[in-house]
Write a structure and sequence with these properties.
This protein is of the alpha+beta class. It has 8 helices and 16 strands. Helix content is 26%, strand content 25%. It is elongated and about 90 Å long.
């Protein structure tokens, strides 16, 4: 009799039919990059992804996220008109050409940030939401909120990404932020696909969205470009084809043309080289665990949900996997109780771990079961020695 702490490994024969051929790795020229299949959570590419770097205008996504939260919470409305301070008006670069005589609708400011990359629009939003009415106060709020969301490599010194010492984000953080924008605010996300916004007719040279992959017919629908001399050219992008969505972040490209080529190539590679595959149906028994002191001696281990995974398109018909659990499992056991994991690793991709649960309930055995178990333990010890109980 093995003790309840004994570890068990079970080869998953049902999934072992052919070895997978690795997908060709994408050799990006970006200095830092992160690509994730949002549908399955599979990381397809990671290059210097946790290195904090100047994010340029890509950090405007955090200002937008906080504006969306304020609208959802009732602290702002889309039709509310906000004043423009001298500080907001003073910004150069990409702007909406606002001045202190303006009172601008929140919806126009949001579109001005997304489509026109308006630095002045960011400051107007920031000062409206700041606890002390300053952009610096809002920047501290941005940093705190980012930390709460898991963006641990992000520090904000301003609302627009204007070059400033200490204003940093990683590409992994930017991808996480993009994920939250898509999932948390589906009502606003279509704005990121707008290709043109002619605010008040006052900026005829700044009406076009700079995102180079919108309108290419590859499913691209967001999110934000960035460029400064220090940061180079970057993009937080997303595209959807069928049931799959990919989010990617690249930074440090030398030219806008290189950014456009790299972005399109990443999207095509992500969808053409990988496919989502159904592996196991929910409730399918993958292994059996012995039960200690139960009215039954074993319980099946099953996935609670259908198991799908992203695999290279050249993968074989199945994958190699293992079921891992610790047993025997001590009774009582509840149906659906987590007991183990299904573990498999598609070639060239990160390990996938799927929780496995008890197929059914197993009640604790009665007096005779406990006496029988104790007798079996004593017999095992007498026959094999006490070391088998360790």
């Amino acid at each position: 009799m093995k003790s309840p702490a004994a570890a068990f490994r079970s080869a998953l024969a049902a999934l072992v039919m052919a070895a997978a051929l690795p997908a060709s790795a994408f050799d990006t020229s970006a200095s830092t990059a992160y690509v994730i299949d949002q549908t399955t959570g599979t990381v397809l590419l990671s290059k210097n992804a946790d290195q904090p770097l100047p994010p340029a205008s890509m950090s405007k996504l955090m200002t937008l996220y906080m504006a969306f939260e304020a609208i959802r919470d009732g602290r702002l409305t889309l039709d509310e008109r906000l004043p423009v301070s001298e500080h907001a008006m003073s910004f150069g670069g990409s702007t909406m050409f606002l001045d202190t005589t303006d009172r601008v609708r929140v919806e126009d400011l949001i579109r001005g940030i997304i489509v026109l990359s308006g630095n002045d629009a960011c400051v107007v939003i920031a000062e409206a939401l700041s606890p002390d009415g300053t952009e610096a106060g809002f920047s501290r709020m941005m940093t705190q909120r980012a930390q709460q969301m898991g963006m641990t490599s992000s520090t904000f010194m301003n609302s627009s990404g204007w070059p400033q010492a200490g204003h940093l984000m990683s590409t992994r953080d930017l991808a996480l932020l993009a994920h939250h924008l898509i999932v948390d605010f589906p009502e606003f996300y279509p704005l990121f696909a707008e290709t043109e916004f002619a605010f008040d007719g006052r900026a005829p040279k700044n009406t076009q969205n700079r995102n180079p992959i919108l309108g290419l017919g590859i499913g691209a629908d967001g999110l934000k470009t960035g460029h400064t001399q220090e940061a180079g050219f970057g993009l937080v992008g997303s595209a959807r084809q069928g049931d799959r969505r990919v989010i990617f972040v690249i930074s440090g490209l030398d030219t806008a043309q290189a950014r456009a080529r790299e972005s399109e190539a990443i999207v095509n590679w992500s969808f053409r080289q990988f496919t989502q595959r159904d592996l196991v149906k929910a409730g399918t028994r993958l292994a059996t665990a012995d039960v200690w002191m139960g009215e039954r001696q074993s319980v099946g281990l099953v996935p609670a949900e259908d198991v799908t995974a992203l695999v290279p398109v050249l993968a074989g018909s199945s994958l190699q996997g293992e079921v891992l659990f610790k047993g025997p499992v001590e009774a009582p056991v509840e149906a659906g109780q987590p007991l183990g994991e299904l573990v498999f690793t598609p070639e060239g991709l990160p390990e996938v771990r799927v929780p496995l649960v008890a197929e059914s309930a197993v009640a604790r055995g009665g007096f005779l079961v406990r006496i029988g178990t104790a007798a079996q333990m004593l017999l095992t010890r007498f026959t094999n020695g006490p070391e088998t109980m360790m």
